[in-house]
Design brief:
By secondary structure, the protein is of the alpha+beta class. Among the domains are: 189 residues, 7 Propeller (Methylamine Dehydrogenase, Chain H); 116 residues, Immunoglobulin-like (Sandwich), CATH 2.60.40. The protein contains 11 helices and 48 strands. The strands form 13 sheets. Strands 37, 39, 40, 43, 44 and 45 form a 6-stranded mixed β-sheet that branches. The radius of gyration is 31 Å and the shape is elongated. The protein starts with a helix and ends with a helix. Bound molecules: 2-acetamido-2-deoxy-beta-D-glucopyranose (5 copies).
Amino acid sequence: MGDQRSFQSLLVMLPLLMLLSKMSQLWAFPFSPSLDLDVMPRTTVFSKGMLGSIGFRGSSQNYSTLLLEEEAGLLYVGGRGALYALNTSNIATPANLTIDWDASPEQKKQCLNKGRNNQTECYNHIRFLQRYNETHLYVCGTNAFRPLCAYIDAEKFSFTSGFEEGRDRCPYDPAKGYTGLLIDGEMFTASQYEFRSSPDVRRNFPFPTLRTEEAPTRWLLEADFVGSVLLKESVNSSIGDDDKIYFFFTERSQEQIAYPSQTKVSRVARVCKTDWGGQRTLQRKWTTFLKARMMCSVPEYELHLNILRDVFVLQGRDAQSSIFYGVFGLEWKNIKASAICQYSFSDVHRVFEGPYMEVQDSKWREYTGKVPEPRPGSCITDLHRSQGINSSRDLPDNVLTFARRHPLMANQVHPKGMRPLMFKRSVNYVKIAVHKEPALDGNIYTVLFLGTDDGWLHRAVDIDGEMHIIEELQMFDKPQPIESMVISSVQRSIYVGSHSGLVQVPMSTCQRYTSCYDCLFARDPFCGWDGRVCVEISSRTQRANLTQDIMRGIRGCKENSGNVVHRRRSVMSGDDVLLQCELRSNLASPRWTLNGKELQGYGLNSGYRIGTDGLLIIGARTQQSGSYRCFAVENSVSILVYLYTVRVHTDPYFPVEPTATTNPTTVSSPTVFSSSSPTEQPLPSPPAPLPPGAEFQTYRHMEAVYISLVAVLGGLCLVLTVVLLYVSFCTRRAAHGRKFSQQGLQVLGGSERKRSSHFELKTISSHCNGRQCRQSISVPTFGDIGGFLQIVPGEGQMSPAKTPPLAPPLPMPPPLPNMDYANGLSATLPSVLRKMNGNSYMLLTQADPEGMSPLYHSFTEELNRILEKRKHTQLDVQPDESSI
Ligand SMILES: *[C@@H]1O[C@H](CO)[C@@H](O)[C@H](O)[C@H]1NC(C)=O
Ligand SMILES: *[C@@H]1O[C@H](CO)[C@@H](O)[C@H](O)[C@H]1NC(C)=O
Ligand SMILES: *[C@@H]1O[C@H](CO)[C@@H](O)[C@H](O)[C@H]1NC(C)=O
Ligand SMILES: *[C@@H]1O[C@H](CO)[C@@H](O)[C@H](O)[C@H]1NC(C)=O
Ligand SMILES: *[C@@H]1O[C@H](CO)[C@@H](O)[C@H](O)[C@H]1NC(C)=O
């Protein structure tokens, strides 16, 4: 018995350990070249800073079903208990039409009696909403676990007749995977309709209805559907081919797969549109159902992303040139990771023309025997018609018997380039929409709109096979998954639905870029610089004077337009001074000069610390007075953003000058240098170029070592957790085991940026040489941080700092001897010390924009105390080592 138990526990642990080794690989080598796949959004826009976004919030929730009709200018929305017809030019206009359609109180009561949740499930969730004919829409709702469907007169926006039984057309459960199409009056759907029923792909009408087969071979196993599409392959077909419908889903794998930690596979399946089922064999069943496995793996990490979350089909000029994008995730829900893979339908086609799989000795193997004619699973073509086979009912029995037992193809569908277009850790993409945009360089760029499970939208552009995330936009204040998304090319808007509402945002917001370089660095195919402002290039007919450089994001700007902030600081000698320099771009790194000379040696003894948010002068000395310039370095171009005039006084009774002047015009034309344009005026003392410094490399190397260490420790924790779990598993009831181990794993996945948590992790470094200290990886903080961790309790608030580059002017200084304002610490701390690299110390601060809370003083004192202590204890040379 005991032996059996330990064997069982081994079985439980094995897949976890294998996954763990994968994950630690993933987290231990974040600096390999392939990391290019994991790109950081260039800018972060919080919901407060969104421009031109329009919100719609009806009486209902769960805005999960969208139907866009561009010509009519209407967006039909299906929510919970209601339908809306919204004006696409402005979804919030009061003229919008509504149909209230909720389940009856009796039905809700029955639903509750069935053990369902009357807070979320026992409502009429609209799941299907499509055009039926010229005058009518067709709609289905869950109706508190008793689905109904109905016709809607589109013009009046009201029901025409009574309701139809929806049991075979719409799932009972509002959260169940579901997809469907209404084509030429024929309805095709795929779901697991009822709780106990098997998943099914159906033609619901007209008669005869068709289904998938369950015996002797199950065609679908716990399938979770995410999408479907019609490809009109009959159009201009030389062989008289049929139109086909493709379904996308994840299911439990039947075949042997090489990764024991995974139990699921992603699939694409297809049926022919004019399938009528078989005459004797496969009566009322599809005769053309075929499915194949879709792969999306990161080869470097041997990581197979097997859960398909969403697909978007980009229709080509003809069916064969159409491509589709899949969003994939991992089976372990608590580990955030996403990959985008791109496939071509011609590859899918090839796989469906290839060898079949077959069950032999209860295992799936490739079938190598003779395949009957006409080829099982193929549509009826002219060739068949010439043989007297006019429909699927004329197919010979041996063909149908073969089709019944061979739904699965042996080959897999691989993505273009055999790798993901994009791989992202600590983000769960759940929705995708794709748009093609012509740029000034004559190329047409693919722009991906990616919705996350916490309410963000990423805009990414495919530049020669490499993804660049232009920006991340916070669509909803409250973190919640993006449930639906649709693009209008006519309105140049994107509509995003979630639990709480619907938001319309412009496809691009070029005016957010305030300088030529900002506009250029964004590499946004929609935007160009016209000499004064950044504009949507589509808004201009005269485009000769517009500047854009998608390929490199460097060429075209002559001068910085002058968004330079000038500030004066007067401080007491011995004080710590923070010169704030917030960089708008997450891809930029800071560079500092003092009186035109590059600030060298940021070691602890140099008296300077640099972070991506500012420069800290520790114990200011009089010789540190002077003119400090902060440059944002991006794409090897330095842009002056801040200019500080610092005076260090020894006399404690000097008169205090006004501290802040924010006046771009008083700054003499800012100096910009670019490695690519030698014509530009160099700095008084030309700074060193930006070499990939050796120090930097070792720093990165060390960081990698630490991360692996952390991963190994995490692994040990996990193993312990699993053992503990097993013990508790044996003593208590079973169900909790899996949940527990997933929590253990979550520690590994915890490198997510702390957007929404109540406090923010902030670090400062003396190791970041101002050259390329970008993309810090916040190490999961479950180790000992060496006593430099401080937690300031309280409700946190995100620093709003990412949006406007100009910090608000400082308040007038209070009378002496309070020096806190002069050194800039108390007034700026809430928004600074963000994402600074390294581990010299970490601060968990609360943000309080009022800046007058007594906590600030204690915080300043605390900071000073820490700095003081550091100076004396000489924790220099390798502060990183002391911090783990
Ligand atoms: C949508 O609103 C615009 C402007 O308010 C109006 O011109 C247009 O007719 C409206 N469209 C529909 C379909 O109501
Ligand atoms: C849900 O059911 C409970 C009783 O089980 C009842 O008290 C509550 O009011 C119901 N809520 C709604 C929204 O119907
Ligand atoms: C569309 O379908 C509805 C419902 O079946 C029907 O009443 C209506 O006449 C149809 N309209 C047209 C133009 O065929
Ligand atoms: C509907 O929204 C609520 C939150 O408002 C959420 O808890 C629930 O899961 C959503 N239901 C579905 C089916 O998405
Ligand atoms: C198929 O259709 C052709 C012409 O429409 C007809 O002559 C032939 O008899 C049909 N074959 C069968 C098997 O129904």
